Amino acid sequence: MSVVPTSAILGIDEKNVVSMGSLHAVKFLLTIWQALMIVLLGTCVKVAYYDNGSDFNNHYQYFTGVEIMMFIGFGYLMTFLKRYGMGALGLTMLITILGLEWGIWIEWFMAKLMYHDNFDLLELNIGIIHIGLILVTSLLISYGAIIGKVNPLQLVIMTILEALFYSINKAILIETIALVDPGGSIQTHLFGAYFGLAVSFALGKPSTTTDNETNHVSDIFSFVGTLFLFIYWPSFNGGELPSNSHAQQRAVINTILSLLAGSVGTFVMSSLLNSSAKFRPVDIQNATLAGGVAIGTACSLNLRPSDSMIIGLVAGMLSTFGFARLTPLLEARIGLHDTCGVHNLHGMPGIIAGVSSIVLIAIKAPLGHDMPEVFIYENQALRQLYALLLTLGISIGSGLLTGFVLKLVGPPKGTDNYSDFPYWEVHPWERDEVEHHVKDVKDEKNEKNEKNEKNGAHASKDKHGDAVYNKIENGRYSPDDDEVQEFEYEPKNVSVKNKPK
Questions:
Q1: C-alpha distances in angstroms, 495 versus 116, 227, 240, 492, 498?
Q2: Which residues of 455-478 are buried (b: 16+ CB within 10 A; e: fewer)?
Q3: How far is Cα 319 from Cα 143, in angstroms, rounded to an integer?
Q4: Rounded distance, CA 381 to CA 221, Å?
Q5: Backbone φ, ψ for residue 8 (5° rounding)
């Protein structure tokens, strides 16, 4: 006598039972973690105030700009997957909130543990919260490399572990090496990109699925994220510098110039590398932002406008080349799957930022430029090189370790990738039902056209069928759409006296 699984009796897919298990685990973990955060922040932190009100306003304005980048910019940028909109926005929100709480405490703790004897209370002000939000950027970059391939439990674990490793790396960069990196291109973008890529490599290449695709609507939503990131990127690069200082003003201006030149280079390369000469949405959504990453390390230096523009132009063109050529090559040769292309937007531009800072500082230091306002060591260029290499080593090593940990709690084979369905309440119909309906609409339409062609007539234009099919492809179809009311269609060629009331 065969035993019928409980899931079958209840009408629940076994894969969904596993998804429910991971969701139960993550809500338990989040509950315990939040209680721990209340204890840590309640016992180790005291609120501090700015004596100068203008300093508070300056920091808060920059904080607001970066917060918009996290929730709206990164969130909508990742909605390019046609069936993963809730995961892109909702899990971006979860990572940001969890990472900000944890980041405020762990950065302070690691710096104290590694370099200071006393553990005085953390004086919490809007500037410290802003620094914690910068840490979140690294987490969201790493999320971009594995988006759609992991469950919420894995994301929460990765957030906790990555923030720890990020804080260790940053403490060494700031306290020992004295890295100059106001825009965080090395300590944040470079770390997040190669940490995420290492995690993705450890998890392995996912199964092929049609859900790992875009459509017209998802591309437009992703563009919204691009525009918000473009507008607020100067706030990111200049926010941690002294309020209203010349260095802060230079950082904002240099970032704007770099973004502008990089965007022009992106449009040129996107058309050049496409056989149809059309602009590819993936290039414009991402590579137009590469200039903001590439200028981040040197943005506070005294630069000529042409310096910033050249750095941005090179970054935009190289990033576009990465999306068009390098990403498929790495996936085919070594199995490195990068869902969002973080290697092209954050990894390679982060390396450009490090190298450009080395070259520019090596030229400027002997002349006494930017000293002591920006940096104080004559061998600062060498220190930038050390920071670049150290960050690459720690990010890749810790990312591989984290990836192997995540494999232990990963979803089973066969779980839907790049889909909201396993972890979110979405439309009440099953995906298989929708796919079957797509096939039925296509078959019915083809059959009608074949009959008309045999009879010598033109192919019929089934406007209702086309509308249904387009809705399905854009993720906006519901079976209820087939229940058409009479008043929705008005018969043609009907006399007035016979016209339906």
A1: 91, 54, 74, 9, 5
A2: eeeeeeeeeebeebbeebeebebe
A3: 19
A4: 41
A5: -70, -40
Q: Which long-range contacts does 438-442 make (Cβ < 8 Å, 24+ apart)? A: 438/469, 438/472, 438/473, 441/465, 441/468, 441/469, 441/472, 442/469
Q: How far apart are the two ends of the chain, measured CA to CA in Å?
A: 61
The torsion defined by the Cα of 323, 329, 334 and 340, in degrees rounded to 10, comes to 20
- Strand pairing category for 45-47 and 122-124: parallel
Residue 112 has pLDDT above 80, yes or no: yes
Residue with tokens 């990453």: 293
**Lowest-confidence pick of 13-22, 123-132, 188-197, 317-326:** 13-22
480 phi and psi angles, rounded to 5 deg: -65, -20
**What is the average pLDDT value for the chain, to the nearest integer?**
86
pLDDT band, residue 476 (cuts 50/70/90): very low
Count of C-beta atoms within a 10 Å radius of residue 499: 9
Helices (H), 408-430: none
Under the banding of pLDDT at 50, 70 and 90, the label for residue 442 is low
Q: Please tell me the pTM assigned to this model.
A: 0.84
For the stretch 351-382, pLDDT in tens is 999 999 999 999 988 888 898 889 889 899 99
Q: Scan for tokens 């960069």, then name that residue.
A: 173
Instruction: Scan for tokens 């929705």, then name that residue.
Output: 488
CA-to-CA dists, residue 29 to 17, 348, 398, 409, angstroms: 19, 35, 22, 13
Residue 47 phi/psi, 5° resolution?
-75, 135
Question: Which residues make Cβ contacts (< 8 Å) with residue 289, sequence separation at least 6?
Answer: 226, 229, 230, 233, 259, 262, 345
Q: How far apart are the C-alpha atoms of 171 and 189, rounded to whole Å?
A: 16
d(CA 197, CA 186): 15
Burial tier of 387 (Cβ tally within 10 Å: 0-12, 13-18, 19+): buried
Could you tell me where the DSSP H helices lie in 204-245?
216-238
For residues 274 and 287, give the distance between their C-alpha atoms in angstroms, rounded to a whole number: 15
Rounded to an integer, what distance in angstroms lies between the CA atom of residue 335 and that of residue 323?
16
d(CA 230, CA 239): 15
Contact 157, 25 (CB under 8 A): no
pLDDT in tens, 203-213: 998 876 666 78
**Which tokens hold the place of 11?**
């009408």
Task: Show the DSSP H helices in 273-407 as ranges.
Answer: 281-286, 290-294, 305-321, 327-334, 342, 348-364, 380-407
Tokens (6 digits) for 38: 């209340």
More confident: 329 or 427: 329
Question: Residues 249, 385, 200, CA angle at the centre, nearest 5°?
Answer: 95
H helix or E strand, kind and range, residue 46: strand 45-47
pLDDT for residue 95 is more than 70: yes
